[in-house]
Specification:
The structure is a homodimer. By secondary structure, chain A is α/β, with parallel strands linked by helices. The first copy, chain A, is built from 12 helices and 12 strands. The first copy, chain A, has 2 domains: 1-100 and 268-348, Isopropylmalate Dehydrogenase; 118-251, Isopropylmalate Dehydrogenase (3-Layer(aba) Sandwich). The structure holds 3-isopropylmalic acid (2 copies). Chains A, B: Residues 5-343 form the Isopropylmalate dehydrogenase-like domain.
Chain lengths: 349, 349
């Protein structure tokens, strides 16, 4: 098997700390396997602004395009709040430059961590759904976008083609799950939502086994809290996905453990924790590395088809959590290093 | 004191049932007071479609404009799902026609009902905040709005003037509360949000006592669940307000009790329950009338300055809830009529 190339964007504040932890686990897990890889660092986010006055330098785009997968750690923070171009801008640009039109976020409640959820256990039950968010269109990229002192304007656009390709991702995913798709929109108001519904009505004919329903975004925002087990795969537009996936993430009670994947048609997928760069705990050695480690697990599974390796990491993480070797965000007292070392140890067990 | 005129839009499904309950309480509460009023019914929503093929007939707009306040009960339902113009369209039009640019939604956790909340008690504590939603601009009304088979487009617009007038409502409200305003936006992406921030930075200078902070809508969607006590007054754009106010409403555990107010510069305010027309329980006599009764309480307070009357109704409702004379949505077995009769009885006590 040829050597895989993984781009590493280390991030800001706690970013590099959890990236290092993740790479240790990847190294240990793959040691005695046939999976071979090399990593290449590229500048990105705040770190890239410091060095190149630009959150997404050309070399990073060009370099990433040639890799097999991208690992990105949390970026941004107060240091660049007044920067002309902020780190987050780089995030929008890399999605666009690499054609990463889908963002996948699992919301799965872990019984070992669900006591940290703000939501009651009897509501959570076995909550396990995925939000498939369209990532390179909608109001994030629509033009015109204008602003002066007196007025401002944003434009939301979708083409049938853009809707179809994100539906494809979500419907395919549902076929390996409970075959239930919920389209979240605001079709009682928005023209773009009406297009989504029209395209879905046609598209779903190719998936007769899949149950499809529609929910307005306001109703979905309620149901995610009151009845999260009602969802399997949610497919939605960029802005709604941004809001709902963050809302959903708090159900788990363990933000510091959740990975995500962004994917396009071809080219490398991008894997990253869903949380931010946590400036308040940076440098203290207590950041939760599990989100990064699970992002790596997701990469092995989705980009490299390394199911056994991924399963091994998943089991090792699970055991570490069960043994309560966990960082303060999960109510533990372990450091980033201790959690990482324990997971590495469990890989061998 | 001159007689006040109140427009009554009875709504669909459970709409008329809870309107009748509300008007009984208003009648009983005002009987021995100096508050004099008459009501005039106007066709609206599904009922108006049935009669006039139009959810908001001209006569309703013209009539409402001449009144001192409008009471609206829940509208819409499956009967009109395939109507050319759906009942909800009437809702958008009446807001626009009457210039009701602000929507006020209290989220106040009642200790007697909070056990119904999906969120844990230790998170809820004394949650008490208000969402001030801009209601007649943004993506709901921006043009162009276009759709064909291949693509669709929506436009979000805001003028500095529109932002200022909604800020005024929210800041004034905060002065009677904890003097804390949170502007929710997506200023890391949207031009309209950047305008909101610019206008706020200037506007807040007139309210030096008010603490102002900003939150991205995705972060706010999390914080409403994880730390709802952090909010006092949220001011936000039309679409964000739609999503967040529905999300927030479930915290109370008692959707069937929450009122709302929509207001403009002059002309009558509109008061309505926040919930829908609940077709599944229509005609069974078990709809919770408290949302409508509290909408009337809000009307007495805000439109007519009848604080004593409003307080009297509030106390009567509170006693009924404490005595557990409550409908099934709140875990009780009482009917709409029994709850209403009990509240009327408590008015005298
Ligand atoms: C940083 C921001 C522009 C970004 C988004 O809104 O997409 C973030 O919230 C996310 O969800 O990845
Ligand atoms: C029915 C719908 C158009 C409406 C809205 O989105 O404003 C409703 O959700 C509301 O909040 O009153």
């Amino acid at each position: 098997m040829s050597k895989k190339v993984i781009a590493i964007l280390r991030g800001d504040y706690i970013g590099p700390e959890i990236m290092e932890a993740g790479l240790k686990v990847l190294d240990a897990a793959s040691k005695d396997s046939s999976f071979q890889y090399e990593t290449i660092d590229y500048p990105f986010g705040g770190a890239a602004i410091d060095q190149y006055s630009e959150p997404l330098p050309q070399q990073t785009i060009a370099g990433c395009k040639k890799t097999d997968a991208i690992l990105l750690s949390a970026i941004g923070g107060p240091k660049w709040d007044t920067a002309k171009k902020r780190p987050e801008k780089g995030l929008l640009e890399i999605r666009n430059a690499l054609g990463l039109f889908s963002n996948i976020r699992p919301t799965k409640v872990d019984p070992n961590l669900s006591h940290f959820s703000p939501v009651k256990q009897e509501i959570l039950n076995e909550t396990d759904f995925v939000i498939v968010r369209e990532l390179t269109s909608g109001i994030y990229f629509g033009t015109p976008r204008e602003q002066n002192e007196e007025k401002a304007l944003d434009t939301t656009t979708y083409t049938a083609q853009e809707v179809k390709r994100i539906l494809k991702i979500g419907f395919e995913m549902s076929m390996h799950r409970r075959k239930h798709v919920t389209i979240v929109d605001k079709a009682n108001v928005l023209a773009t939502s009406k297009l989504w519904r029209q395209v879905t009505e046609e598209f779903k004919k190719s998936y007769p086994e899949v149950t499809v329903d529609y929910s307005y975004v306001d109703a979905a925002a309620m149901k995610i809290i009151t009845q999260p087990t009602a969802f399997d795969v949610i497919i939605t537009a960029n802005l709604f996905g941004d809001i709902l996936s963050d809302e959903a993430s708090v159900l788990t009670g363990s933000l510091g453990t959740i990975p995500s994947m962004s994917a396009g048609t071809d080219g490398p997928n991008l894997y990253e924790p869903i949380h931010g760069s946590a400036p308040d705990i940076a440098g203290k050695g207590i950041a939760d590395p599990i989100s990064m480690i699970q992002s790596i697990e997701m990469m092995l599974r989705e980009s490299f088809n390394e199911t056994l390796l991924a399963d091994k990491i998943a089991a090792a993480v699970q055991k570490t959590i069960e043994d309560k070797i966990i960082t303060p965000d999960l109510g533990g007292t372990a450091t980033t290093q201790e959690v990482t070392a324990n997971i590495v140890k469990n890989l061998k067990g």
